[in-house]
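Workshop exercise sheet. Pairs work together: one partner reads the sequence aloud, the other fills in the structure field after running the prediction. Swap roles for the next sheet.
Pair: D.N. / O.F.
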Amino acid sequence: MNAYHKANQIRWEHASASWARGAESRGLWRSAYSNSAAVLLAEELAILGDIRGKSVCVLGSGDNQAVFAFAGLGAVVTSVDISQKQLDVARQRAETLRASVKFVCADVSNLKAIAANSFDIVYTGGHVAVWVSELAKYYAEATRILKSGGLFLINEYHPFRRLWRDAAPKLELQYGYFERGPHAHDYTDDILVRKPGSLRCYEFHWTVSDFMTAVLKAGNEIVAVHEVGDENEGWESTPMKGLPQCLVIASRKRNA
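Structure field:
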């Protein structure tokens, strides 16, 4: 694990308790198991189709809402995250839901604990790539553990939303689109409130072309791309309405 990822891991370990409390108040981890549409986009569900009995690996699983959605749809799910504390919370919630999930603590750029050609579907959603310093290596590992012809499905926070200064009354540029980072920050353990603190973390702002190029170079064929939503999310303190919320890329691993 490189120094950037180690710092991010430490911050997420510190943040796991407050993040878990927030997830508990929203309750989506409970509803996701019986209602996948609560956490997965209609575009994602259309791409996935019937996944009963299929093996699914969720990379950067975080609060594991997507993991529980896949389990509720009948998939055999493996949850991978860099934070052991996040996984410990998720394991307790899986027991509450009576969902059968395998949990693996690992850096998404180094999945040596997982054999090649293991999964029908590899999924990564939410805000994962922003914490990853080597996007190409991340997607290469995701593709390595995918079966030939398997589906690699990505749902990322849209890159256009990472450019703006926090809490500004109007859009005020803080980063250029091609300023990929690393962007170093010293924050508290509250992920959603960016107050100065003692926990160093690093962010990486990948472009749309970075995502698509990394998918292709890893050995996949892109089958669908969607830019979805244009509303402000509840946690956003900058007026983002009109900008795309999510970038969804679906691809299939080329046959060997």
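Discussion prompt: The longest strand covers residues 146-157. What would you look at next?
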